[in-house]
Amino acid sequence: MTKTLLPLAAALCLAAPLSAQSQADAPGGHVDLAVAASEALENDTLAWDFVEGLTTEVGPRQAGTEAERRGREWAMDWLRAHGFANVASEPFAMDTWVPGDVWKARITAPFAQELIVQPLGNSAATAEGGIEGEVVFFPSVDDLRAAPAGSLAGKIAYVSHQMRPAMDGSHYGFAGPARWVGAGIAASKGAVATVIKAVGTDHHRNPHTGGTSFPEGVDPIPAAAMSVPDAENLERMFERAEGRPITLRLELNPRRIGTTMSGNVVGEIVGRKPDLPPVLLACHIDSWWNAPGAFDDGAGCGIITAAALNVARTGTPLRTIRVLMAGAEETGLWGSKAYSEAHIDEPIAVGLESDFGADRIWRFESNFRRTNPGLHTKLAKAVARFGVADSAVVATGGADLNIVRDQEGALIDLQQDGTRYFDLHHTPDDTLDKIDPAQLRQNVAVWTQVVGILANEPRAIRDAGTVPSAPAIMDR
Ligand code: ZN
Ligand code: ZN
To answer: Which residue range(s) make up the domain with 41?
Structure first.
């Protein structure tokens, strides 16, 4: 497969040589932080070891299942073997959906042929043998919303859209609703099933799964994602059908298996002052059933653990660094919510999450640029040498940082290049070979630098007590 090496080459060119002074060991014989970060860029193997091991020894880790439990145990073993303290699983109960193993879509008229689909999370099952209906074409979710009440009775709604790649993944906000709410809207108008064009940017016969939801009082209906090429084929059929109805037989057998246990994995590098609020580094340990989840989110868990260990090499940090590998993110942020509920009274100094693949970090964002501009600028300057730009965008944190948002605490987003993220996202193609080791190491270098500064910051991070005017950066 194609590796995206050029952006990293640019980052390497931007990495200025370290001064003679910064190359000296820090007091106590430990490695200087800037040196540790630079060494991570050159030769970190920890993040790769984590994601390679997890994807090889465990594989797919569907939330609430035995496979996710094996992922949790594998991660705890890895953390203990690498010297993390207070490694534990914090269990929580969840309502669990599993995909089944029959996912068939067949156009029965006028151009009979099989098309490739996979169920969306929370999809209902069809009757055995499938359900057949006329397909009603909606170019967008807004068109579906505009359909009259009851107009889809007995029909199958098809929702198109076309997701485009973007470095910041922003088109997910445009195309995502087809998956997030399309089936619920169609069900409320009487549809017997929904098929969407997969929310993804590739042109392979890989449907992108992901969660959908149904409004209160609306019974779930069968809901599937169709691979982008198959969806385009279906759309061409509408052009050629000359008004004849297009009928589809859909067969899916996902099911709800009731309440099962999931859990969050935590581990710590204990700081010199453990009573200070910790720095929280988050990722999620679950994946969809259809892939080993290398990009989403094995890599993220590898990046944050590698960074924590690299910071430990520079000496015991002032603050504790806590890693949180959330369970059951994909099916509704169960782990993130459970963690916040259990720990809401324990203040977090700052939260960061890695959950957008393994391509290079290109932008630094915080939510304290105005309230603590000194620290914001110090952090942004420290990672500029890795090709990371400062930004006025206000960080909002990732899905697994509910606790920090609930506490209205400090957040940093280290934005990764997401140009190809949605080629792989939630598809069977999310495999280890897609990770570019050089770009993975750049992630670890940036995280090491940032976490090392944060874990040794004695003052409050979101608000250091002064509110001077903001640095001159273009708002956008
Ligand atoms: Zn994810
Ligand atoms: Zn995901």
So the answer is: 3-97+258-455
Give dist(CA 60, CA 62) in Å, integer: 6
Among the bound ligands, name the one nearest to the CA of residue 300. 1
Q: What is the pLDDT of residue 7?
A: 38
Q: pLDDT per residue over 20-44, tens digit each?
A: 334 444 556 689 999 999 999 999 9
Contact 393, 473 (CB under 8 A): no
**Ligand that comes closest to the CA of residue 356:** 1
- Same domain for 128 and 56, yes or no, is no
For residue 78, report the distance from its CA to the centre of ligand 2, in Å: 22
In this structure, are residues 400 and 283 in contact, taking their beta carbons and an 8 Å threshold? yes
- 405/351 Cα distance (integer angstroms): 9
- The rounded distance, in Å, linking the Cα atoms of 444 and 308 is 9
Interval between CA 287 and ligand 2 midpoint (Å)? 7
Task: Report how far ligand 2's centroid is from the alpha carbon of 339 (Å).
Answer: 19
Neighbours of ion ligand 1 (CB under 5 A): 296-297, 355
475, part of any domain = no
Judge if the upstream peptide bond of residue 110 is cis by omega within 30 degrees of 0: yes
